[in-house]
Design brief:
Elements: E1 4-7, E2 12-15, H1 24-33, H2 36-52, H3 60-76
Antiparallel strand pairs: 1-2
Length: 89
Amino acid sequence: MSRNVYCQFLKKEAPGLDFQFYPGELGKKVFDNISKEAWAQWQTKQVMLINEKKLNMMNLEHRQLLEAQMEAFLFHGQDVEIEGYKPQS
C-alpha cells in the first residue's frame, strides 16, 4: 500500500517512503515529509559524500556530519558541497 506525503524537498504531493529508513526524530521527520524520489536523490548525494570525505559510519562525528548534510539538503534546500564534483547542466 503506497502512501502520499507533501514532500518538503520537491514542494509537491508524491509517493512517500514505505518505512522509516533513519532512526529517531529526524527519521520520523523524513518519513512524514520526504518522498521516495527526494530520498533517492539524497542517497546519491550521500554516497558521493561518504566516498569523497572517506566517512566511516562507525565514527560518531562522521555520522553527525552526514546527518547535518541530510537535513540541510532535504529540508533547507542546500545542495551538498562535494569537492571536484560539477553537476551536469
